[in-house]
Design brief:
The protein is an alpha+beta fold. It is built from 22 helices and 24 strands. Keywords: Hydrolase, Protease, Serine protease.
Length: 712
């Protein structure tokens, strides 16, 4: 075990001891009353958070307001259930929640539960009535799709009209899908006659009714454990977005995701504002290999093969996952809404996640007589338990660099796009491959001075031209490495306007271990993941909230999305501490010249121009969230979105491909293993039309052609 990993492990042990001690003290005293599970859980959580969280909250009126606002959003994100009079009743408790959790009562929670249960039953009767009658799609009216812009209905008449528009919008989207299905229908192969306009409208309402019946069935099956989990997680989330409560079943799902081995599609999902969003694609998974599902997509419906799809809009995440996961070899069809507003049906054959795809991989690009190495790292994996055969991302990257040097490359592009992070130790060791010894990152707990994590190896594994590629989904350890390269002026960081901005460290604590034996009768309690430390660059600035701003910014189709740390609920803010002592790289790239040359190429590129146009249209469309409920107008908008997507795809196909190929040493090493051969070739296949990679290669080539600046 390395010295760095030992220090981090000791810190985690100390935090765990503090957490257990705080929780154990919870009920010591003269109180002979036997507390309920809800009271024990909330008090244990708050004790642990107060002692171990990076930035503990005061349990006061401000805490109450944060919990109140977030819980109100969680129980009625669409503002379709509660009336303004209901919210007024609940608001009486807005500054009393802190007092309630201290005394172990839950008046606010009880009232919220009763109101939501009552309004849910009323809404069920309402949607069934409204969907029983034909709808007119020729009328000029609109529906507000952004629920944050909506208001709680003033009375039941206003609520009825909101539901009518909502149901009409959903029915219209189903109607368009049915019309498209009918248009593609081959009369010679059809076993049933074509549907009439009246029949298609009726079928659309039937599908929406089926969705809501399933949705409300889920809502009405919520039990005390579900309610408690939602309440506990809401309280935890008011500390920061990465502090979470895991009910026992949720912890199981989290563990599956962390092992990287399960049978399913291999996408990390999140529920936000009632929508199931793709947060990340797990490297090596079925989704990763299929290639069409992307981070930022919204999953609307799920079908088991050719069966009738089930809508997951508004569905609980744990419920939605049960439809998406499945046995190896089975097909799931996802209807997803893309960021440009278009919809797409994506078929994915479930499989076991291929761990090999998680590992570092390299290739060689031949560009006008120059040989440039390409190195891809999907995640910062590590052999945390020092198991035999375990792999370290730092060691693997070191081996890939050696192979690239053997191939005679003159520069390297290091691709950290969509790398969500992982092992801090490996990030530090990896930075050391490109610099001589010195500080890489600073880590600070809520109390005390910062700890500087150093590269202690004076050897430089690679000293040539370097470009590090990042995007909006590069986070945590990726940001540490990119920031170190930037601060040392060791290479050029290229990509989106900024990286994600997650500059915090979390630890997971089993609450059953933290609580004493007298509570065994009401266990299990689940687990608490809480933020314990914060990262800082060696220049003193935090990577939290702001992320890393690249030296060269490229147009990015996802740049308009609000999906960074700063867009989440209650993120910890950016700050800075004293810089560490370090010396910049003596042969620095001429950043001003490289940036100017890149800007000129991008400005003259038809592909980048189109990306920029698409981004501007997406940004405008994102702000204009009112949708026409007139069928002809809605169809026109959909056709325009499809035409834009098709235009970009055609431009990509016409672009000059990169001459990228697997390493000869890799192909020789796997001569008899077709799976590994295909993996090596697949990397090249997915990158040949990558316009961002092409520009990164051009920047490396500029560094090769123009000697670097030497500074002492």
């Amino acid at each position: 075990m390395s010295f760095l990993r030992l220090k981090i492990g000791l810190y985690a042990a100390v935090v765990a001891a503090v957490f257990v001690l705080a929780s154990y003290k919870l009920y010591r005293g003269n109180d002979a009353r036997i507390p309920q599970k809800e009271e024990v859980l909330i008090k244990a959580m708050l004790q642990g958070l107060s002692q171990a969280h990076y930035q503990p909250e005061q349990i006061d009126d401000n805490f109450s307001r944060r919990v109140f606002d977030l819980y109100l959003k969680r129980i009625d994100y669409s503002k379709k259930f509660l009336l303004q009079s209901d919210v007024a009743q609940l608001r009486k408790f807005q500054t009393d929640i802190d007092d309630q959790v201290k005394r172990g009562s839950h008046e606010f929670l009880d009232l919220a539960t009763r109101l939501v249960d009552q309004r849910t039953k009323e809404a069920q009767a309402l949607y069934r009535e409204l969907l029983s009658k034909p709808m007119d799609f020729a009328t000029e009216e609109s529906f507000q799709t952004d629920f944050e812009k909506a208001q709680y209905p003033a009375d039941k008449n206003a609520q009825r009209d909101e539901w009518r528009r909502y149901l009409k919008y959903l029915t219209m989207t189903r109607l368009v899908e049915i019309q498209d299905e009918q248009a593609k229908r081959d009369p010679k192969k059809a076993t049933a006659p074509a549907l009439s306009a009246t029949e298609m409208e009726a079928e659309a309402r039937k599908r929406v009714l089926k969705y809501f019946d399933e949705q409300f069935n889920d809502l009405m099956q919520n039990d005390d454990n579900d309610r408690l989990a939602l309440w506990a997680n809401t309280i935890a989330n008011t500390y920061d977005p990465h502090t979470e409560y895991f009910a026992p079943k949720d912890k199981e799902s989290f563990d599956i995701a962390m092992t990287g081995r399960f049978e399913g599609i291999g996408a990390t999902l999140q529920e936000k504002d009632g929508q199931i969003k793709v947060a990340d694609i797990i490297p090596g998974s079925a989704s990763y290999r299929q290639g069409q599902l992307k981070a930022g997509d919204i999953i609307q419906r799920v079908a088991q093969g050719a069966a009738e799809p089930i809508s997951v809009e508004g569905m609980r995440l744990d419920k939605a996952i049960t439809y998406i996961r499945g046995a190896k070899g089975t097909e799931v069809r996802l209807t997803v809404k893309k960021p440009d507003g278009s919809t797409q049906v994506i078929p994915i054959v479930r499989d076991v996640v291929i761990v090999e795809e998680t590992y570092a991989q390299s290739a060689v690009i031949n560009e006008n007589g120059k040989k440039i190495g390409y190195l891809r790292l999907p995640t910062f994996y590590a052999n945390f338990n020092d198991e035999q055969g375990g792999r370290s991302s730092a060691e693997d990257v070191k081996k890939e660099i050696e192979k690239l040097k053997t191939e005679g490359v003159q520069g390297i592009v290091f691709d950290l796009r969509s790398n969500g992070g992982g092992s801090l130790t490996d990030a530090v060791e990896m930075a050391g491959l490109f610099i001589d010894s010195g500080p890489v990152v600073q880590v600070r707990s809520g109390q005390g001075s910062a700890q500087v994590l150093n590269d202690r190896d004076p050897r430089v594994q690679y000293n040539g031209p370097l470009v590090v590629m990042v995007n909006k989904y590069s986070a945590s350890a990726s940001e540490i490495l990119a920031a170190a390269i930037q601060d040392y002026k060791r290479g050029v960081v290229m990509g989106s306007t900024s990286t994600y901005g997650k500059g915090t460290v979390q630890r997971i604590f089993n609450l059953d271990d933290a609580l004493p034996a007298e509570f065994n009768a009401i266990k299990p309690f689940g687990s608490l993941k809480l933020t314990t430390q914060k990262f800082y660059r060696i220049n003193g600035g935090s990577t939290q909230f702001k992320g890393v701003v690249p030296d060269i910014v490229l147009p990015d189709a996802y740049s308009y999305l609000d999906q960074g740390e700063k867009d989440s609920e209650y993120p910890l803010k950016w700050d800075e501490i004293s810089p560490a002592r370090y010396r910049t790289w003596p042969q620095q790239p001429a950043l001003d010249k490289l940036k100017a040359a890149s800007n000129t190429r991008v400005a003259n590129s038809p592909s980048f121009k189109l990306v920029q146009e698409i981004v501007e249209r997406m940004r405008k469309r994102k702000d204009d969230t009112s949708v026409s409920l007139k069928l002809t107008a809605y169809r026109a908008e959909q056709e325009q979105a499809k035409a834009e997507s098709k235009r970009y795809e055609e431009l990509q196909k016409a672009a000059q491909p990169l001459a990228i190929a697997p390493l000869a040493t890799d192909l020789r090493a796997v001569q008899s293993d077709t799976v590994k051969q295909n993996r090596a070739r697949r990397l090249s296949k997915n990158l040949v039309k990558d316009i961002n990679l092409r520009e990164a290669v051009a920047v490396v080539k500029d560094q090769i052609d123009a000697p670097q600046v030497t500074r002492r």
